[in-house]
Amino acid sequence: MQEIAKLKDVSEIRQLIIDNPDLPLIVAVSKDLTGEDMDYNYSIATNTIASVDSMTVCEDKKHDTMLWLTKEEFADALSDIYGDNPKYRDMSDKEFEKVIQEKVNQAEFTKAIVIYAN
User: Fold this and answer.
1) Along the 118 residues of the chain, how does pLDDT read in single tens digits?
2) Number of C-beta neighbours around residue 100 at 10 A
3) pTM of the shown model
4) How far apart are CA 52 and CA 27, in angstroms?
């Protein structure tokens, strides 16, 4: 299982939810992550969605960070990465999509509860 940017021990949060089922789950996002210039250390994500998803880690060299991506997002990222590569430029769309799908199938995906914060 991939170890980047995930809650390593979920027992504490699981127990908090069990003990407090009526409390809201508030997602606080660090200003270091948002890049916002604000007076407080955290802002509250007012639009959150939780779901079970399969995710993989992808390096974003442009922004010098690691990203968790769904299979569809990963395929889109690979298409962007390889789209201008001369090795793939002369392929038909169908052949190129097959190459991308093979790369997606080779990636390690982790099934997780994901909280999307906007």
Assistant:
1) 445 555 667 788 889 999 999 998 888 877 666 666 667 777 888 888 889 999 998 887 777 778 889 999 999 999 988 888 899 888 999 999 999 999 999 999 999 888 888 7
2) 20
3) 0.71
4) 17
CB 85 within 8 A of CB 100: no
Nearest to 78 by CA among 65, 59, 63: 59
- Identify which of 72, 66, 73, 71 has the alpha carbon closest to the alpha carbon of residue 2: 66
Radius of gyration of the chain (CA): 18
Cβ(48)–Cβ(116) below 8 Å: yes
